[in-house]
Amino acid sequence: MLIKPQIALHLGVHKTATTYVQSRLWNSREELKKNRINYIGLDELRKRLTSKLGDISFGKQAVFDALFPFMNCNRLIISDENILGGTDAPRRQAFYPWAKQKVKKVHSGLEGCDVEIYVTIRSFPDYLVSRYSESLRHFKFLAFEDYMSGISSKNISWLPMLEDLALVGAKHIYVNDFKYVVDGDKYLHELIGKRLELSEASQGSWVKRSKISQEAYEIVKLYAESYSDQSTRRLVGMMDNHPQTTKSNPFMPFTKAQLDTFKERYEKEVEIIRRDPRFTYIPE
């Protein structure tokens, strides 16, 4: 008889040090195994599960079959921000309009397991600029204003996504701010369920991708007018791997009034989340 493990479903969101977390888990996988904790590498997880979640024929049993080989443990960590969606332009007036369907499908395949959902949120300006910067590495170039055209300012919120996750049926949904993830190892210990000495993350621009600078944005915008999408993405990749030698000004396409509004909204949303019994805000 299969004893189903406790599941830690780490969903990101994007640009909240997910690659850093995944790199540390991957580099620590032998230590985790000694403690009967399994972590599925990102490439393997995306091949087996994430890339198939949009397929109607990939249902509950298929999800279970994809994850079954990793269930010989006490705790299984499933970490992929792409389960929520991608970093393409926001659509349907939401950050992750298909999150509920995808996460619910994963959750249904884990029936009988104790599933904990972990999700990190971030201040709106930092998240949006970081998400946009990441989109330039994967999608056709859009000016920032075009990238944001699918979501109005009043609908920029974490609450709809969290409401969708609450409807999935998981008993435990842990929410935290981005700063908690990068503040030592506390978040990782929450995720793995115990205090262990974990290996450091691998080095490289792919682990810690920076936000684009104002100068880089202007260069890419001009370049995209004359060259192919593929060539433009390569230019962004080259910029990732070659630090800017001139003075760098952060790309921040919001006015001070917008920044103040976003700050007030984010703080109010954190308080709403703290008071909502469906969520556990960490740290408390």
From TrEMBL:
Protein name listed in UniProt: Sulfotransferase family protein
Organism: Halomonas korlensis
